[in-house]
Amino acid sequence: MAYFRPPGPPPDPALVRSLTAQQQELRQRVRAKPLAHEPHLIGGCDSSFPTPETILSVFVVLKFPSLELVEKVYSYAPVTMPYVPGFLSFREAGNVVQAFAKLINKPDVVMVDGHGIAHPRRVGIAAHLGVLLDVPTFGVAKNKLTGTFAEPGPEKGSITPLTDAKTGELIGEVIRSKDKVLPLFVSPGHRCDQATATRLTLACLRGYKLPEPTRLADYWAEEFKKEVR
């Protein structure tokens, strides 16, 4: 997800307490498990902020495993929550849900541009959305949010574990998606497990750094911005 990070005063402590409590409740609902069946449709979603006051959320749906584009939709709306570090999913989730509601073809699993459980409180945007939508989700992020890892090998397909620095818990995997490019951080969201998240990420690579569902969501976000400007 492409976040807008405005400068400003520290967040309201009462708001932080409320969001923390909501994340803790969401975390209790997150489930890690394999998909019930191989997906026929895979979704990709991404959000960006065309202006500091607005958000654009995009969903694409692709056939799997051919990755043929089936559908693309977006939702454009005012931003309703201030920027609070660690709680960025709350700025995006509502609008992403609105975009999902526009889909005629509902995906069997959704790849989210962002983190799943690889989050300080184990509820990144992919996990958050999975619980709200009650669909299988996993996150593919371009940057680490938390955890420790060894750099994977330089060739495409190299993988190393992403673990909690204190407990050693596996919270994701670090994947080299293209030779000699910076790696991706893949973690399960909801109703998905790590093995599935990693397998689907690798299966969706087509010569770019980003797998097709999130790459195309990002591409169409740029195209849809032309419509809302």
UniProtKB/TrEMBL annotation:
<keyword id="KW-0479">Metal-binding</keyword>
<comment type="similarity">
    <text>Belongs to the endonuclease V family.</text>
</comment>
<keyword id="KW-0234">DNA repair</keyword>
<keyword id="KW-0540">Nuclease</keyword>
<dbReference type="GO" id="GO:0005737">
    <property type="term" value="C:cytoplasm"/>
</dbReference>
<keyword id="KW-0963">Cytoplasm</keyword>
<dbReference type="GO" id="GO:0016891">
    <property type="term" value="F:RNA endonuclease activity producing 5'-phosphomonoesters, hydrolytic mechanism"/>
</dbReference>
<dbReference type="Pfam" id="PF04493">
    <property type="entry name" value="Endonuclease_5"/>
</dbReference>
<protein>
    <recommendedName>
        <fullName>Endonuclease V</fullName>
        <ecNumber>3.1.21.7</ecNumber>
    </recommendedName>
</protein>
<keyword id="KW-0378">Hydrolase</keyword>
<dbReference type="GO" id="GO:0000287">
    <property type="term" value="F:magnesium ion binding"/>
</dbReference>
<feature type="binding site">
    <location>
        <position position="113"/>
    </location>
    <ligand>
        <name>Mg(2+)</name>
    </ligand>
</feature>
<keyword id="KW-0255">Endonuclease</keyword>
<dbReference type="GO" id="GO:0043737">
    <property type="term" value="F:deoxyribonuclease V activity"/>
</dbReference>
<feature type="site" description="Interaction with target DNA">
    <location>
        <position position="83"/>
    </location>
</feature>
<keyword id="KW-0460">Magnesium</keyword>
<dbReference type="InterPro" id="IPR007581">
    <property type="entry name" value="Endonuclease-V"/>
</dbReference>
<feature type="binding site">
    <location>
        <position position="46"/>
    </location>
    <ligand>
        <name>Mg(2+)</name>
    </ligand>
</feature>
<comment type="function">
    <text>DNA repair enzyme involved in the repair of deaminated bases. Selectively cleaves double-stranded DNA at the second phosphodiester bond 3' to a deoxyinosine leaving behind the intact lesion on the nicked DNA.</text>
</comment>
<keyword id="KW-0227">DNA damage</keyword>
<dbReference type="GO" id="GO:0006281">
    <property type="term" value="P:DNA repair"/>
</dbReference>
<dbReference type="GO" id="GO:0003727">
    <property type="term" value="F:single-stranded RNA binding"/>
</dbReference>
